Every structure is written in structure tokens, then in C-alpha cells.
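worker-3 :: picked DUF1254 domain-containing protein
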Amino acid sequence: MTEPVTHQDHPPPDEARETAADAWIWGFALLENYRTMYPQAIDPQDPRYVGGFGTFRHYSEPFTPENTDVVTPNNDTPYSWAWLDLRAEPWVVSVPEIDRYYVLPFHDLDTSYVGFVGARTTGPEAGDYLIAGPGWRGEVPPGITGVLRADTFLVGCLGRTYLAGPEDVAELRAVQEGYRLRSLSEFLDTAAPHPPEEPVWPTWREEDLANVEFFTLLDFLLQFFPPLEQDRELRARLAALGVRGTGEFEPSAFAPEVRHAVEQGIADARARLEAAKRDAVDSTGWFGTREEHGTDFLTRAVGVDKGLYGLPSAEAWYAGWAVDDQGNRPPDASKRAYTVHFAPGALPPARFFWSATMYRLPERLLTANPIDCYSIGDRTPGLVHDDDGGLTLYVAKGRPENPKQAANWLPAPDGPFTIAVRVYGPDSSVLEGSWTIPPLTVSGDSGLTA
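worker-3 :: C-alpha cells ->
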């Protein structure tokens, strides 16, 4: 058993504060990931439970405001959730031939992507893909189409599959049911290895994000995350605080002045994250592979906070408005009505499709409205283009009286909101920054369109 860290073993308070701040930013993604994994894969009493590890749970029906599994949900691509435990052996994900957009993105414990199976990366053909954990050096069996190598022993997947509309649900469900997960031994029809010991999973508690128990949970999760070269310096500093990945960390071992310094470090980190979020308007750098993230853990934390499990920009580019054209932050439909005008030829350039989805703040969830419309995009029927070929969207809490405006109405909540623009398969002009979203323009007070 690892020897407990005593008071005299701890670094001085100023170092403890700096380490706590840096480690909170780095570890934020792990805890937010656990926040989702716990109800879905660990707690069978939770209605969000997907069935444990090694199984898909598909959502084929469009999302409504009652769905709260994940922030900023979308109805472009209903979800397929799965979690894998790679400690005993690899897993194999099999997909059929698919004639529509889809992506199965597998992510490590810290939300960095391991790899992608889908329309953009692997094409429409059927295939069997091996997902291996840290240190696996086994022989890749014949028939495997590709190999994804994870850096953590616990891996998640938030799959997306294109939905054309409510009438397409049956076809969507048929595609989703073609996704298959099997352990490697099941895939090969051989004897399964001895299962790993079941850990005592900590109960998720929301308040632990803001206190020293953050590091108790982080210490537990690090058991499933062997140190990487790029993280060794920070992991060494964490170890000096007693966070060694043993699952035995006790905040009570802190001397009072060190505990206070750690609390200050957490507050520093949270303030740093809030400042970084304030002016972030698109998803560039938020989501990606470990190579794409590099050591920019603050940008990764912004992405985790604004849209956990968002896709990398090459797959799907996200943008939105933190402020309207008059400087109001955040936009508020209880006080104002808005327009979004795309000039002729300046609609979002997408290989697949684009959408703009409304969310209420601060929850970042869909908002109820009288026409059950949560997004507008290039697949929305009945949109009316401007005389010059452009497109103007009308954002307000009440339906516009003008029929042309009503056809392009994106209902807003009676209060603050945000809109997420998603461009699936973005053109290079999006990725390079030469195409940007137009401003969110105040068009009058909220009563003008009621």
C-alpha cells in the first residue's frame, strides 16, 4: 500500500496553489467526463443508464427539452452512446455499409479523441475496428479494418448518425442497430481473459468540482490513465500533493495552510476558465485528438464546458454568439428580437449539412416553444430566401406576424440564450477563417414580433 502523504511532505503553499490551479484546468475534462460516465455506465438505477460497459444505447427519436443527458444536444445527428473498459482486452466495433453521414468518435478519459469511424474518415464501407488500451501489444487478427489505440483504459463514444426528419426515424434506427460492439475474445470466439477487479466507483457529486474533493476523484480516475510524456511534469507536481493515481488520496492529510492554498488554486483556475470562455465564439481548437490538443489544456477545458464531446473542426465546426451587435451579453429574448442575415452566396459552406440550434441559458438545453422547432438549417422545409438570394433568420420569443418572417422563425426562450451553428464537413474557408458567421443583430424590442 502506498504510504500516506504527511503534512511535512507537501510543497509550500505558493507551489501548492499553482499546482492546484494547473491541475484543475488539466483535470477538468476528466471529471466532466466522469459526470456523464457515472450515470450511463455505472449507476443502473439512473434513468440515463445505457447498460454498463460494452453496449450501445441508441437515441432514434429527435431530442426535446426533456432530454438532459448532454448539454447542447442536437437533432441533426441523434446519438449512440457507448463506454468501454479496456483493462482486460481490446474491443471491436463493427459497422455495416452506410449511405448517410455518421461518425463514431472514441475518446479517452480526458475527452481527447482516440480515433473516428465514419463517413468522413473511413467512408461508407462496412468494417471491423479494433480499440486497444494502453500497453496492448497483442497480434491484430485477420479481418480487422483498422486499429484505434487509446491512452486510457476507459473509453467513451458519443456516436452521431444523420436524421433527415421525423419521417426518417425508422431508417435511422435500422442504421444504428447495425453498429455492434464485441470484446476481442467474442469477436474471435475464444475464451475470455480473467475479468479485472471491479473498482469502488465514487458517487458523482456536483459540488466536488469546486472544492478539494476534486482531487480525490481525480486521484481515483488516474488509476485508469497511465502517465504520458507530455503530462509527466504536472503528474509529478500532483504526486507531490498526494494525488498519485492510487485511489487513496485524502484531503485531510493537507496542513491547514496547504488546504487553503489548494482552495485558492481551484478558485484561480475557475476564474481562468471563465475568462477564456468569455470571448470564445467558435470551436477552433476546442475538440480534437491528443496531438491536436497538445498542452493547451485551457482551450480543451473551454470546449468541455461549452459543448462536452464536441467534434473536431474538420468533422464539425461550431460557432455561436456570446454577445449581440450592440454589445449585450448574453443575448436576451425577453428584452430584444434579433435577426441573422446570410448574404447571397454566404450560407455556411458544408460538405454534408449545417444547422443553427437554440439553447436556453445557463443550462444550454433545448427550449420549449409552441411550434416544437429547435433549429433551422439547410434541410428545414419552407424557408423563404431574400429577394437577392440571401437568407435572414428571425430570432424572437414570439412568432413574427409577417408570414415571410414566420417561415424563418427560430423560437427563443423568454430570457438569455445562445445559438450553436454547426457546419458538418466544413469547407476550407471555414477552417481557415475566411468564412465567418454574420452578427446577431438587434432588430427591435421583444414585443415587436410577439
